Amino acid sequence: MKIQDLENKIVNDDCMNILVQLDDNSVDVVITDPPYGVREDEWDKEFDSRYKEWLGECLRVSKYGVLWFCSVSRMHYFIKEWFSVYRRVLIWVKPPGSVVHSAHIVNRLFYKFEPILVFDKGGIVGNCEKDVGVEFDWKEVNPLSSKEYNHPTVKPEELMAWLIRHFSKRGQLVLDPFCGTGTTCKVCKELGRRYVGIEKEEEFYKKALLNVERGCKKVVMGEVKLV
Ligand SMILES: C[S@@+](CC[C@H](N)C(=O)[O-])C[C@H]1O[C@@H](n2cnc3c(N)ncnc32)[C@H](O)[C@@H]1O
Questions:
Q1: Whole-angstrom Cα distance, residue 141 to residue 156?
Q2: Structural contact between residues 34 and 69, judged by C-beta atoms closer than 8 angstroms
Q3: Most CB contacts within 10 A, which of 19, 111, 160, 162?
Q4: Alpha helix locations (H) across 104-216?
């Protein structure tokens, strides 16, 4: 399968069925929010048996590297296994009053942040436009209501825009193999990046198609604005 056939499309499939068919270095970067292995949802339960093949394939198909969301309690799995390409961690901070999910509470202490690991295979650190602003390596953004957005772990557009702008350039191809409701894809479209999304659940896939069609609510080109 040629990546050109998938460009600016979302595919309804298990990502491994697609990833194994792609050439090495065929997308510029992978930016993805995969299952964390901490939830009761069916789609989250394969984490332990599959996380190695998932990140292994993402690294193989990416030219520059991978941004990988994960849970605080599992981040060491990835750092230990891929230490040679692990470069840094970025942090999504949840402001006071955020929705608290039980999966993020340990000993009655709530994890107020989620890590995003940066794996640099060939220069993802430094792969950004010259005009991108200097920001901190953490970003405080309100989580979204799963009821309102019809997905239990939908990510905010502003958060994805922060990552996409700092780790890709306009015109580059971004792959999200666990695209859920299509947040990465719609923000890529808004920010002038090409995208490929893969989502195995038909319900979320259909929402992703609609969301990309409708476009972003909050993000404008080259700048992030809260409405
Ligand atoms: C954490 S969610 C991503 C949510 C997304 N960031 C959003 O904003 O909507 C992970 C998604 O991966 C999907 N998924 C799980 N295993 C998959 C697989 N093997 N291939 C493709 N998608 C998968 C799940 O259905 C789920 O929607």
A1: 7
A2: yes
A3: 160
A4: 146-149, 157-167, 183-190, 202-214
Residues with CB under 6 A from ligand 1: 14-16, 33-35, 43, 151, 153-155, 177-178, 180-181, 183, 198-201, 204
135-139, 143-147, 155-159, range with the lowest pLDDT: 143-147
| Residue having the nearest C-alpha atom to atom 8 of ligand 1 | 154
Task: Determine contact, residues 139/133, Cβ cutoff 8 Å.
Answer: no
For atom 19 of ligand 1, the residue with the nearest CA is 14
Q: Over the stretch 28-80, which tens digit does the pLDDT of each residue have?
A: 999 999 999 887 788 888 999 999 999 999 999 999 999 999 999 899 999 99
Using a 10 angstrom Cβ sphere, with 0-12 exposed, 13-18 middle and 19 or more buried, the burial of residue 205 is buried
For the domain 3-224, what is the CATH code?
3.40.50.150
Closest CA to 116 of 158, 64, 63, 74: 74
Question: Pocket of ligand 1, candidates 44, 50, 204: which has the most ligand atoms within 8 Å of its Cβ, to mutate?
Answer: 204
Helix, coil or strand: residue 79: helix
Q: Where are the domains of the chain?
A: 3-224
Q: Is 49 exposed, middle or buried (0-12, 13-18, 19+ CB in 10 A)?
A: exposed
